[in-house]
Amino acid sequence: MKSLFRLFALGLLLALAGCTTIPLSTMWKMHSFGAEDFARIKPEELRVKMLLPQGFELDFVKDKPHLDFKIETAHGASVGKIELAKVSQQQITKTSGLFNPTTTTQTEYELKLTDESLPAFNLLQKIARGQEKGRSTTINIGFNFAKTPKGNPDLTVTVSLLLFPQDGYFVLLDNAQLKQVPEEKK
Predict the structure, then answer these.
(1) Taking the CA of residue 143 as centre, how many other CA atoms within 13 Å lie in the half-sphere pointing to its CB?
(2) Is-contact 125 56, C-beta < 8 A?
(3) pTM, full prediction
(4) Which residue, of 25, 47, 60, 173, has the fewest CB within 10 Å?
(5) How does 13-34 read in b/e, with b if 16+ C-beta sit within 10 Å?
(6) Mean pLDDT for the chain?
């Protein structure tokens, strides 16, 4: 009976994991990521890849894509906003489906820290090195669009992160369905 319950619990967990946009491998990798790991990142090597549907263009002028970091300890929180610059942009065509194949074109952006953001990132790493156990680190990505297709307010986005080149990219969000928030009219 116990093994039947364990099998059921495992099946339920796998089913729930299949419904999420964050891969299990990423959850496993990031569960032990801490301030020591954050402090080892070489800012000039950090990269973000974003895969967007055709017609969506990132805004690099008005509101640049950025990473938000938050390091919390018993002594308070340290936060930072790190702007990202475009390294490359390319069109990728994918075909999916076995019996009724469909072809989609997506735009892949590779991003890096801006030169102006390097001191802020180094400061956050210094803060992270000095923190005691019992802290948490949060990393978020923010972006706006310079151009969006008409009549399509929702989009699917994939975001991958390269922290250490020897480890390669790992997926943070996998085909996440996002709703755009319309700008308020003035």
Answers:
(1) 26
(2) no
(3) 0.72
(4) 25
(5) eeeeeeeebeeeebeeebeeeb
(6) 76
Q: What's the pLDDT tens digit per position in 104-148?
A: 889 999 999 999 998 888 877 877 776 555 567 777 778 888 888
Whole-number Cα distances in Å, 139 to 38, 124, 142: 10, 12, 10
d(CA 182, CA 186): 12
Distances (CA, A) of 155 to 43, 51, 169, 178: 29, 11, 22, 5
Neighbour-count burial of 139, counting CB atoms closer than 10 A to its CB (0-12 exposed, 13-18 middle, 19+ buried)? middle
User: Which pair of tokens denotes residue 9?
Assistant: 């619990």
What pLDDT score does 186 carry?
Answer: 38
Q: For residue range 4-58, list pLDDT tens digits in order.
A: 333 333 333 333 344 445 556 656 566 667 767 778 889 999 999 999 988 889 9
Number of Cβ atoms within 10 Å of the Cβ of 177 = 10
